[in-house]
Amino acid sequence: MKVTAYIAQFLKEKGIDTVFELQGGMITRIIDALHHEGGIKIVSMHHEQAAAMSADAYGRITNKPGIALATSGPGATNLLTGIGNCYFDSVPAIFITGQVNQNEQKGDHPTRQVGFQETDIVSMAKPVTKEAYAINTSSDIPIIFEEAYRIAISGRPGPVLIDIPMNIQNQDIEILVSEVAATIPKDDTTEQQIFSKNYLNALKNSERPLILVGRGIRASGTVEKFQKFLQKYRIPVVTSLLGLDVLPFQHPQRIGFIGTYGNRWANYALGSCDLLLVLGSRLDLRQTGSDIPSFQSGKQIYHVDIEQAELNSRLKNCITLKSNLSDFFSSSENHENSYTTPSEWVNGIEEKKRSRLDTSELENITGINPNIFIHKLSQASKQAKVFTADVGNNQMWCSQSLELDENQLFLTSGGMGAMGYSLPAAIGTSITLGNAPVVAIAGDGGFQINIQELQTIRRNNLPIKIVILNNHCLGMIRQFQDSYFDSCYQSTVWGYNAPNYAKIALAYGIDSISISQPEEIETGLAKLWNDPSQPFLLEVSIDIHTNVFPKILFGNPLNRMEPEIP
Q1: 372 lies in a domain?
Q2: pTM for this one?
Q3: Distance of alpha carbon 10 from alpha carbon 430, whole angstroms
Q4: Same domain as 345, residue 373
Q5: Contact at 8 Å (CB) between 328 and 303?
Q6: Of 326, 355, 384, which residue is a domain's last?
Q7: Beta-sheet pairing, 551-552 with 561-562
Q8: Helix (H) or strand (E) holding 66
Q9: Nearest 5°: phi and psi at 29?
Q10: For position 378, which CATH number holds?
Q11: Do 444 and 343 belong to one domain?
């Protein structure tokens, strides 16, 4: 069969039912083969970055590789931000790029380029992929595709790139390779048992235990196992940005969101605990703050991660276990003892929360309080299967105040911090879940990066509820300029503006409304969900000087946050 026909059949046999792309000369053969194969939804985007981010969302939802295709040159390079997003957030994906014919490639010749749009995307992508392949012969295709699929979903999930010259795409191949099974590596059972036993022994003597969870819980498919673990060991839980949806908002053991802009009471718990179990989180700078000695003081840290490089990396002297979380939870089930956290510790955290709620952090602001709005948005959006957030102030307000139900997910760009993520991620999510309703939250700055995908929403009639928190500036950097640049607002307020989003939505055939006062919130949310089957855009005007608080004071311990309170 032709190489392109093999690719289409391969994806279909792996259960991949959707691909995202922007058509281009060097991938026309592949897209044509996908069309004629049938059974795979081809979603045409308006920018390759958006295609990559939609594929990212597919990977997060299904734990199968998301697939995005792009042509050579600018098409391939436009994928890179989305590829990096998958790499840093451990999302399985396969990116397929077309390349110019082999006789048009410069090879070892010192000239810059021979073929039109010839670009060495493999070299560019290697630092942000688990593997990147340049196909040289058609006979390599079956082996490489099987290997790429296995690599993408095995161990720490991540992206793989396959670059295929146009002439090879049209060649015939024989299928001589048997399917390579993707296996989850089994780690040392004895080591797991010892680690679990030591941790549970330490737990017996702990007065202030805490668990920190990240996206590794979802990536490993162990949400149910984790919740059973919590039923047995009743320990408070804080979450990273990407672990926000591991426990529902009302779960009795959920404390809140930690980090640079974390809930004040959650950071207090993380800073004050004496025994910390870290599951599926890499303890990056935004989680611990820069004062590492203070973070580690007075506590013993047990850390489980599937990647050895993440253990005792920034933080030293942790007790570590390189293991997939499924095996760790299984080893913990073998221990008969249970545990209930001392009430003094739980009550102390709750008292901290009552003394300074997230909705009380922004005092004396004009207009709509974004934390209050996010709570009300959550309560009005029970039909939403997923919330996506962009990067910037909107992301932090969501993380501080979003009320997720048991079956609701939260998707955002973590390690890459890519503005423009929310809208294409919502598209990928809605399509993956059978055109399910999704809430896409963005700031006015990030929304403009992939605003063109409003047409993708309208063309596919996706019930995406778009909420733009418009603070009329690049708010997170504007806040930074207030703190460190004497309120010199170059390129955040000065030299920056945004259009009337409600009118733009109407131009794309999407109904919309703008609100600016607290008393308009209920009306705006009612219109947002008036027809759950249709897209809608709600623009929420927020005062330009509205900050994200609390925020860690630079260089200080995690639980010292501004504005400081007695």
Answers
A1: yes
A2: 0.95
A3: 24
A4: no
A5: no
A6: 355
A7: antiparallel
A8: strand 66-70
A9: -65, -40
A10: 3.40.50.970
A11: no
Nearest to 219 by CA among 278, 277, 154, 284: 154
Same domain for 138 and 9: yes
Buried/exposed code over 382-411 (b: 16+ C-beta within 10 A; e: otherwise):
eebbbbbbbbbbbbbbbbbbbbbeeebbbb
- Number of compact structural domains in the chain: 3
Residues 325 and 297 in one domain: yes
Q: Which amino acid is residue 76, in one-letter code?
A: A
Q: Which of 300, 335, 355 marks a domain boundary?
A: 355
Q: Are both 258 and 194 inside the same structural domain? A: yes
Structure tokens given for 365: 């602001």
Name 341's Cβ contacts closer than 8 Å, sequence gap at least 6: 209, 234, 235, 236
Q: Which domain holds residue 542?
A: 363-552
**Does residue 236 share a domain with residue 165?**
no
State the CATH number of the domain containing residue 302.
Answer: 3.40.50.1220
Q: Which two tokens stand for residue 530?
A: 């008036």
Asked whether residue 176 is assigned to any structural domain, the reply reads no
Nearest to 476 by CA among 549, 556, 371: 549
Spatial separation of the C-alpha atoms in residues 425 and 31, rounded to whole Å: 22
Cα pseudo-dihedral 301, 209, 396, 436, rounded to 10: 100
Whether 142 maps to a domain, the answer reads yes
Is 429 inside any structural domain?
Answer: yes
Do 394 and 537 lie in one domain? The reply is yes
Per-residue pLDDT of the chain (566 residues), as tens digits, is 999 999 999 999 999 999 999 999 999 999 999 999 999 999 999 999 999 999 999 999 999 999 999 999 999 999 999 999 999 999 999 999 999 988 888 888 888 888 888 899 999 999 999 999 999 999 999 999 999 999 999 999 999 999 999 999 999 998 764 544 444 455 557 888 889 889 989 999 999 999 999 999 999 999 999 999 999 999 999 999 999 999 999 999 999 999 999 999 999 999 999 999 999 999 988 899 888 999 999 999 999 999 999 999 989 999 999 999 999 998 888 777 778 899 999 999 999 999 999 999 998 899 999 999 999 999 999 999 999 999 999 999 999 999 999 999 999 999 999 999 999 999 999 999 999 999 999 999 999 999 999 999 999 999 999 999 999 999 999 999 999 999 999 999 999 999 999 999 999 999 999 999 999 999 999 999 999 999 999 999 999 999 999 999 888 888 889 998 87
**Beta strand extents in 215-262 (DSSP E only):** 233-234, 237-239, 254-257
DSSP 427-469: HHHHHHTTS--EEEEEEHHHHGGGGGGHHHHHHHT--EEEEEE
For 128-139, give one letter per residue: b (16+ CB within 10 A) or e: bbbbbbbbeebb
Same structural domain, 333 and 194:
yes
